[in-house]
Each structure stands twice: as structure tokens, then as C-alpha cells.
Amino acid sequence: MHKLLSQIDSAEALRDYSVSQLRELSAEIRDALCNLLSDRTAHFASNLGVVELCLALHSVFDFRRDRLIWDTGHQIYPHKLVTGRYHEFKSIRIKGGLMGYPNPQESEYDLFMTGHAGSSVSTMLGLRSGDDLRGEGDRYAVAVIGDGAFPSGIVSEALNNAGGMKKKLLIILNDNRMSICPRVGGMADYLDRLRTNPFYTGLKSEITKALTKVPVLGDPTERLLAQLKEGIKAGLHGGMLFEDLGIRYIGPIDGHNIAVMRKYLEMVKTQEGPVLLHVVTEKGHGFQPAAEDPVFFHTPPAFEHENGKAIHKKKGGSKVFTDYASEAIRAQMLANDRVTVMTAAMCQGNKLETIRDEFPDRFFDTGICESHAVAFAAGQAKAGLRPIVDIYSTFMQRSYDQIFQEVALQDLPVVLMMDRAGLTGPDGPTHHGVFDLGYLRVFPNLVVMAPGDAYDVKAMVDFAMQHPHPSSLRYPKAAANLLPGDRAPVELGKAEVIHWGTDGTILACGSLVSESLAAAEVLRAEGLDIGVVNARFAKPIDRDIVRRAITTTPFVVTVEEGALMGGFGSAVLEAANHDGLPTKGIRRLGIPDQFVEHGERGELLADLGLDPAGIALACREMAAAAPAESNQPEAVQ
């Protein structure tokens, strides 16, 4: 039990804490974070880095009324601990427990469920505008955004709008020189120059010393020092980027010095118009292993902490789809020097580090700029290269217009590889990649694939790199098994029959082929001969197989780890309708029209009837109804 944390029911209590108490509280928060990692993986280094910033914010503002948005939301843990959720904290990322991201259903302190980077400035500017229109302009509006998210295109749009609207808005730029991996690009270089200019660094140090001696917040001396600093800084850097946009720039300041941060936060309260406060933090601060390797400790495996060291628990398990995907990409890059690969700040998650190091001239990390990544790939394809865009499914949808306009409409051979398709487990609804089948199937020229096992991953990448049109493949965050028997080659629009049955057919698209085979084994022991087909393609769908399944077996069950609306099952119904076939004997299994909560992937599959037991149950129910509602009554003996 933590002495201070355990007594905090509301962040309001922090407004009366002394700096020394807040420092003691920061140590307790870091201990609570380390304890959490003793039995599960969770976002770690990013949360260690914002402890003091979180405490300073809550000790200066009252966010029951004032507005606060954390961007990206995986750095929300300290905020949750001081807003009345300490006693539930051990349940975070467990099914039925606290979400690992902000959740308005949990607390009045959480305004948006922020799981994608970059939107905080836009939504906070909207809140500021709405409060003003409703006569509640006395609310303060604060958006905290990391330097990794800051280059996102939507941030530039928001800054442009904020500078023009002149609304009172505080943007805190949390600069830790990282996203998940080290940040990239011109904005990163620009922030580095702001932070490391030798003359300005010395000036900042002297002003910080002076500020710590100013006893009263708002004292004219403090304001004079701050104005002096700003004037000299403007002279050093000329027309500052943010100042030229109409946004007052202040900083950089030490994001681990609570006393200084409180003084600056009190000072910016008096400023009119938009202000950007540049706060420098260290990702992993306060736990040496995480500070030394913030990439590994972004979401590390479970460990015990002892004397400031991390003792990792033994980790085993089979290779996952991502392993096979990265191997397939590397094989293509070895075979063809026209092949390139790009990702959007997810080099580690997509297991592309080896490729980055081995092919530095043909590897491109665009930062958290998915729209740019896809348009950039289109340009490379137009120049004669064969680009692969490797991005999580939930983030690929941020580039929707570019997939439409720059790739599909131009019919360019860009390969979209969507990791974490389906249910991503503890990350929850912001990260479940369940919409890609629906949002990609609608585009002409674009092929949509889903590998059923490890063999399919390489075969589909090989196919895509020879295909002269745009293509995509999606795969889950899950172990990749090998399906039994001799394998058919991957051919455009052709499914693979694993077993043909007489009592019904399961058409499985992608990640749930193994679960479908397990369900068929259970049913076979009960006397039902159920066929299983590895669909492979959601577009173009194998209409011959669909026709055969509908016309020669009593029922068809489609299975997909994606949204039912517009997904693979919908494609089967469309194919049946196109050929004038009956559809009463078709049942679709997948993600219903709802956002799915967080939990272990296996738990969520079971809840949704997508595990072997759920698939078998659906087949039993269809078999029981088949004599009355069979598509082909004569096929039922």
C-alpha cells in the first residue's frame, strides 16, 4: 500500500500538496508502475516519463472543470492513479478492469478515448470554442502531446487553425526525443535545435535558478525574467515557427522539476491566445533500465524490479504472424533491389529493426504520419519501385483517402501489410484492427488477402510483389501455425480447400482458419462431417467455391476476425446474390456492430463466439435447422 496514493480519491487533493509531497508521490507512482509490470505487459517507459508533468498539471488546474487531453493516451497511467483509480489500478488492461487508455466511462477526468496520436490539439480547440460559445470561457483548456505525435498532419492543421482563431489554449509539447522508437524527421531536428542551442541552454539554466528563488507565483520579477528569456530567444532563432503561426512559444523547461513547472503553468494561465509550452522529459525517467532502453521498455514483458533492476520472467512461445511477415519482406528486399519498405513509427512493433539496419537506403520511417507514408509509397511506385507499407490495421485507416486517391485510383502496385488485424487484446477498442476488410473491399483495383497460417504469409507477399496492381494482406497479433497437408499455391481469387465435408462448410477468412479446423474436429467426433475452406481472398472472392459450398452442402458458416458489416461474410452474401443462389443457409460469424472491450484475445474470441467452441455451436445450430431451411434439401440425407 502506498501511503499518499492510497488516500487520493480525487486529483483535487494535489492542489494542497507541497513540492516535497509531490516528489514523494512521484516515487510512489513509479513504484506502482513497476509493481504492475510484475504480472503483465503494459505501457511503461512513456508513463514513467510524465509523472512529474502529470502532478504539476493536477496541482495547478482543476480538471473536474478545466479541460485536459493526453495525446497519445498510453501515457495515462499516472493520471489514472491520482484521479481516484488507485485501488482499481491492478485491473488495468484486464477484461472488465480499467482501460489502458483514457476512458470517459471511468472518470470525469477523462474526456476522450485517445488511442491514436495527434488529435488532441484539434479536439481541445473544439472544446475551447464550444465552452466559449456556451458562456463557459473561464475553463482552462490543456492538450498534452508528445514530440513523436507532433509531426502528424492533423497537428499542423490544428496549429494553423489555433493560430488563426486566437483562442486561449495551452498546448504542452512533451519532448522526450521518442515516439515508440526514436523520433525521425525535420520536426525532430528542429526541436533538438531548440533544446540544445548552447547559448540558450545556459540562459535557461540561469533563469531557472532565478525562478526557483522567486517565492510568490505571478511576481513581477518572474514575469520580467520570462519576458527577457523570450526576447533573447526570439533574437537567437529569428521568426520562430510557432510564433509565426500566431502561437506563443515558451520553453523548453525541465519536465521533471515540479517546482519550475508549477511556476510556468501558473504563468501561462495569464496568457491570452494559444500558448505552446515546450517541456523536456526523459522516457523511462526514474527507473534506470527503462531510461537506458526506452524502446524495449515501451511495453516490456513482465518483470520483477529489485534494487532498480528489472528481472525478466522467462518467455517462450511460437513465432507470431509478424515474425513471418518481416521475414517475407526481408526475402523480397534481398531478391529485388527495387523493393522498399516503410512504416509509421512502428519499426519495433512490426519487427523491422533488422531490415532497417540491413537496408538503410530502402527503409523509410515516416513517423506517425500514415497518410504521408501511403502517398509517399505511391510516388515510389510511380517511379518504378515496389514499395511495401507495413502499418498496424487500426492505424492504416488514417491513410484512407491516400489509399483511395493515390494508390487504388492510380492502380499503382503498392503492397499494404496490416499487422495487428483483428482483436489486439489488452489494447482495447482503439487498437482492435477489425475494420480493414470493410474499408478496403470497396476500392476498385485493390486485392484484399488474409493469410490463414505462416505458409500463407510468405506466399501472399510473394504473390503481391508479382501482382501489377495494388494489394493488401492483414494478419493478427497471434501465433502463426501451419495448416495440415499439402498446400495449394496462392493464386488470384482462389480459396484453398483444407477438407470438403458433406454436412456443412466453414468458409474461414484469415486468422481463424485454425479455430475453424479445431471446431470441425470436435464436430467430426459427434458425427458431423464439416468442411473447412481457407478463403485467402476477401476480394476477389472465390465465387466457384462459394457456389459449390452453397449448392452441395446443407449450410455455410463464414468466419472472420473482423467487422461483419462489409466484411468477408458480406462478400459471400454478395457472391450468392450475384449468382442467384439462396442465402437462408448462410450464417456469418465475426465482430458485431459494436466496439469490443479490452481483454486477452482468447477471452474476446470466446465472448464473440469465434473460438472453436463458438464456431462448433454455430455449426450445430445450422445443422439442426438444415432439413427445414437447407439451400439444397436434396443434399441432406
Give an overview in words.
The N and C termini lie far apart (67 Å). This protein is of the alpha/beta class and 637 residues long. Helix 1 crosses helix 3 (51-60) and helix 5 runs parallel beside helix 6 (153-165). Helix 11 links the parallel strand 4 and strand 5. The chain has 24 helices and 19 strands. It has a seven-stranded mixed sheet, with helices on both faces. A five-stranded parallel sheet has the order 1-2-3-5-4, with helices on both faces. Strands 14-16-15-18-19 form a five-stranded mixed sheet, with helices on both faces. The longest helix has 18 residues, at 19-36. The chain is 40% helix and 16% strand. The protein folds into three domains: 5-298, Thiamin diphosphate (ThDP)-binding fold, Pyr/PP domains (Rossmann fold), CATH 3.40.50.970; 321-474, Thiamin diphosphate (ThDP)-binding fold, Pyr/PP domains (Rossmann fold); 496-635, Rossmann fold (3-Layer(aba) Sandwich).
